[in-house]
Amino acid sequence: MSIDVGEVIAVRGVKITLHIFEESNKETLFYEGKKLKGVSIQEHVGIRRGLREIVCIIEGEYLDERRTEDSSGGNNRYVRLVEARPIGYFEGDTFTEGIKHLPMIKDPAFLLSEDSVSSIYSPASDDGFVIGRTIKEDVEISLPWQRLFNSHIGIFGNTGSGKSNTLARLYTTLFERKRDAILGKSSFVIFDFNGEYTGGQLVAKEDKRVVELDTRSKDGLGKFPLTAKEFWDLETLSVLFQATAMTQRPFLNRMISGRMSYQGNPDSLSNYFKATFRRSFTSAAQKPETLDLLRTISRSLELLDLLHLLEDVSWHSTQNKFQVPSRPNFFFDPESTRYTEYFGSQVESSVIPDLDGFGELELRINLQMINDLLQGYVQFDHIQPLLKRVESGMRNLRKVVEISDVSAEETLVTVVSFRSCNQEVKKVLPLMIAKHYYYEHRDSVTYPPEHTLHLIIDEAHNILSEQSIRDQESWKDYRLETFEEMVKEGRKFGFFVTIASQRPADISPTVVSQVHNFLIHRLVNDRDLFLLDNTISTLDNLSKGLIPHLSQGACVVTGTSFDIPMVLQIDRLDENLQPDSADVDLEMLWSD
Ligand SMILES: Nc1ncnc2c1ncn2[C@@H]1O[C@H](COP(=O)(O)OP(=O)(O)O)[C@@H](O)[C@H]1O
Ligand SMILES: [Mg+2]
Description:
By secondary structure, this protein is of the alpha/beta class. The chain is 35% helix and 24% strand.
């Protein structure tokens, strides 16, 4: 069916040497009107062995001399030899991967047709899920999407190597081909740290919701909706305000359960406030720190009359109680009526304004602190940093999080852009949003899962990095552990992540080890290459050797969903579908 181009001259283990006929050294050959590629490195040849055709990849070539004797004495001729490695065989039309049959000397080698090459890499149930072509033969390869999207996917490569474009190509193709079938069964959430997917990428506008989080503008643009139930949750609050496990989390927990127990009562918050106020000045063991906390509360609730009264109060350190220094001998003794005399009905009559979730949190956290101090549950110094974080974090979080009980309508794709978020918010919010989706999905899913959730994180080192000088140690552990749990446990629940990153070596090894399919673009850093060596068992030496030299948009595709590693040049998307990541064109920018 095809032309013979050479023959086997040596077989050493799985290393096969072929002698290539001289006329086959051209780049392109024609046979029966079909164009065939000549034999060169990284290309495929077939070797006929009985009824089977063994498929080999060319790994190297060299010249060998052959001495022919004639009348004039010795005469050297050179012949071209190539080294090949078998990767599988055709029996009839079906390709089977693996070395079961090896050729023998004198077996003929021939060129494979395009169809044969593409059927090596595409599964039998080929339905045209094409995102690119083999780099050498230029043959379209259809990917086994059935096995690809139910695994965690890693897209790695240096900046500018084409990761974002590959990611966009992969999912654009998925939605182009399967949108109708997927709708209502799966949802896709994209964490977009650079605002690359907020335009017309991936999927039509009506299937896409873009949440642009912005801490720079005054009110924020888009807000991420959380239900009250989710917000008043130990996990959520601990994440948002980075509570430490030892003392701050139990503290938050007391606050949350206190809220829960009195939730049914009307005015429970206002009663709580008034009772706490009274307790601060009538307790037998008063605490100096409560005064400042009460001032903070009065200030943020704009209870100015109260604030005014509090300004005249101070702590008497030998008597260990509060006093009003401007009035002679005016101590807030527990048994006395001083509290009523001084504050009168001012506290009782004060009205707490309507508060949003954050406002309520600030109030409750201060009240909890006062009560805990009075009861001797906590040390001021342990909890105070948390109060400060709430106070400062709130300002930013209010711009990007909204606590409301109307949940956003379901869309196929949700893009959450963190492009305009400050570091503080970038640090906590992705984790919180990931948890939001993960737990919601986990708690609603049946077994086996009838819904799947796909979390796609471009620039994943932002949140999955092991090195971070900014983070506190405990927070870093918590952040990583949470993601690691999601990645480890997620698959059972139909929760899959796709991570793209320029520094795979920085990403938590636990996460990387759970990734089963890889698209690896050009990577040059030794540490990254070393990591690939150690974590990707399906990568062969030849493809590995290529990784530092791949051109833009070319990648090695390997993993458990692919029989054999392949090197693909990913097709470019139309301009309006490409991620907004193009290199700056200085020639344009600096043209006069
Ligand atoms: N498949 C491709 N074919 C050709 N050029 C590409 C391809 N993918 C990316 N490029 C080029 O590389 C540049 C960077 O791509 P990008 O996907 O943003 O890289 P990364 O996300 O790895 O930083 C693009 O602007 C484009 O010029
Ligand atoms: Mg990118």
